[in-house]
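Holo prediction. Input below; ligand is magnesium ion.
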Amino acid sequence: MKRAKGLRLAALALGGAVLLSGCVTRTEPSVSTQIFVMDTIMSLELWEGGSQEQLNQAVEQLYQWEDLWSATDEDSEIWAADHSGGEWGTLSGDTVDLLSQALDLCRLTGGALDLTAYSAVKAWGFTTGEYRVPEEEELAALADGIDHTQVELDRDACRVRLPAGMELDLGAVAKGYAGARLAEQLREQGVTSALLNLGGNVQTVGGKPDGSPWSVGVQDPASEQVDNLLAIQVVDQAVVTSGSYQRCFQQDGQTYWHILDPETAAPARTGLASVTVVGPDGTVCDGLATALFVLGEEAGIELWRAHSELGVQVIWVREDGSVIKLGDRDVLVRLDPMVIDGEPKGTVLMLQYVENLQKAEIAVRQKLNQKGLVAKYSFQDIIGHSAPIQRAVEQAKRFARTDSDVLIIGESGTGKELF
Ligand code: AMP
Ligand code: MG
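Structure of the complex:
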């Protein structure tokens, strides 16, 4: 059982999202622990209103969920469902709940999230660490076998059925769900401030003890250390990252990672290094982070736009380190090098979302002034002279959702936030 690996690994760095220290009244959580469960290191900190007993309950709950959902443990409900030869398999209430939400997300993402990718995940060796690159024919057969619509979930009778030979796993959603459920339980028990880092899936309860938001860092995928690219302020929200760097191997100069495109059964290659989703529902954030990694930038932004009801903020980090960040109230603006007739003409503003150009321009100029910078070109000039900018504006019009504040998110190529 994985449990035995326990605290030995606790000193290792935590996964994709990392907590930043901040100015809080209290400097230590009232109770905290680190455990190895669900194949990752988790850190649970109760800061206000929590007791050792509540912490123990949370830990016990995580071990129970691991026992139910492990795809490799022959005693788990998921293992039983995967090996039932096309017959119905019985599930407990929590598994039905998680599976039902996860299958909804498979549908919502058009199958970019597909729980039945598990046979392919195994074929690449991601479950054992004995990595291999399957031949094209094998991949084609594996891709044919991925189809979440074949999973029958009978919620009333608490049972599931998949075609013989098909296997599913909950690895892409289980930690987000666990965080959401634990947060709900802790709130009900009167905990007003807690920080749960479930191996890169961060779930917050309330804010810091002094009422200010938690600051959660998004890891720089290119960094060997656990360096942060930017920080997000959150209260009562989940912050979940899916990244190619989290589990990968190299062969013949190529890197292969654990997030697979269900269409090809091979690692999803869309030029992204990571996707972070911030929102009120940890299960949604986890499922969506995986799916948006698979979909890539353009299709992902379309999906984000089409589902404002989810209330999520998304941060895409490209392989070149540049960042796209979209939230409910943001207008996306980037600073990019401007090239005219092959000549670099300095750094200019690049709007990817322009509904009200004049309003956006005023806000951008104000931001630049605050930084002691001056915009050298009028926006009309930019649009008139620069093809890349014009394309960006056209693209922006397709992505536009709300006409609100302007946020300058970074300088292309550096991935660093400027404002
Ligand atoms: P996450 O770290 O949440 O992005 O989940 C990645 C894990 O989910 C992988 O390690 C696989 O076990 C599994 N997986 C890989 N690709 C997919 C996919 N397209 N849909 C669902 N699960 C996947
Ligand atoms: Mg996920």
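Residues 16 and 200 are 4 Å apart (CA to CA). That is the main takeaway for now.
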